[in-house]
Amino acid sequence: MPFDLAIPAFFRSQGWKVKIRDRERLEPPHASILFKDKTWRIGLRDKEFLDSSPRPKDVPKKLLDYVVDDESWNELHRQWNLMYPSNPLDSDEDES
Amino acid sequence: MSNATFVVGRKSRKHQRFSDLNAVWLASTGDIRRAVPQARKGDLWIVSSQHYMEHLLRAIDWPLPKRLGDLLVLDTLRYAIIEALHSVFYHIALTDDNRTVLPCEQLVAVLLSDKKRDLFISGVIDETSETMTLWRGDRTSIVVPLSAFPPSGLGVHPDWSRFEITDFGQTLQFGDYQASSDAVLYEFDIEYRRRLNHARRNKEKGLGPGLRRLRKQRGLRRDQFPGLSAKTIARIEQGEVTRVQTRTINILAGKLGVPSEEIESY
Predict the structure, then answer these.
(1) pLDDT by residue (tens digit) across A10-28?
(2) At the N or C end, where does chain B have fewer CB atoms within 10 A?
(3) Residue ranges of domains in chain B
(4) CATH assignment of B204-265?
(5) What is the pTM of this model?
(6) Which of A34, A36, A37 should one mutate to test binding to chain B, selecting the residue with the greatest count of B CBs within 10 A?
(7) B159: alpha, beta or left, given left = phi > 0 and alpha = psi -120 to 50?
(8) ipTM for this prediction
(9) Residue B178 is nearest to which of A2, A52, A93, comparing CB atoms?
């Protein structure tokens, strides 16, 4: 079952979604911010956008603030680790 | 001159968004016969039902001097009709039923999108051969083994009988299980992978980053490569080994299930 972050209703009604799906590109761990035909991947280790296209600045700042807020961020971490136990966020291997 | 869209069927509320494609609606034999001479490569024909598909084929004057463009069918087709369609169209995008094609509004958005090649519009699953065929917004197809969708860490398995395409072609849904189109294309379309990795490879050149990404994709630990130590693999991934032996590369490629020259492309 995908993890679908509960985002503010205003953004949800516009069509924004923040997800971790059951089958994602594994490396590096990330959450996907979806809007219509676009996806922004945000790295769960460093809060950096993984791709230059689509432009990161097109994600509304208030939505991004909500996603990286401690409560949301910790839940995204927890869910990634549950869904991808073979590639956990805090693995020693990845810190090397 | 831009490509034309022809919709074979009667205008309906369900499909009214096709008007955003400046579609020409063809409901009668006469409409179809007038449209055929204008059709050319790159045009899109959307057929709403098996009934209208048969109607289209009956309206054609055989043999056709040229193919009419690409075809998207929004209904399940009889097997016997498929070969005839291949003589009429270049690419043919199929669906099992209404669920395995994007909803009309999203379909139109994808067909108009400048990244339509990276978005799925329809698909069919064959559980007997354990394969899935997916069609993209440019109507080209890709075949994916069902084994590409392992259970998630939470133990959720894909339910093939509940296949849907959602999120404007960015998500494949199988009941409670969702897969990103990006992950599927990244693994099974080498052109997509090369395109995405072009910029990254300039920054992260070499075998190491590709090996690390592919190993993670396969869910393998560094100690799961018989004949190689975990330490050796770590050194390769971190770029500490400048010349990797052919034997080592062959072991890596064999375990990862890819040609040795492709490891870097992941």
Answers:
(1) 999 999 999 999 999 987 8
(2) N
(3) 5-93, 104-190, 204-265
(4) 1.10.260.40
(5) 0.82
(6) A37
(7) beta
(8) 0.93
(9) A2
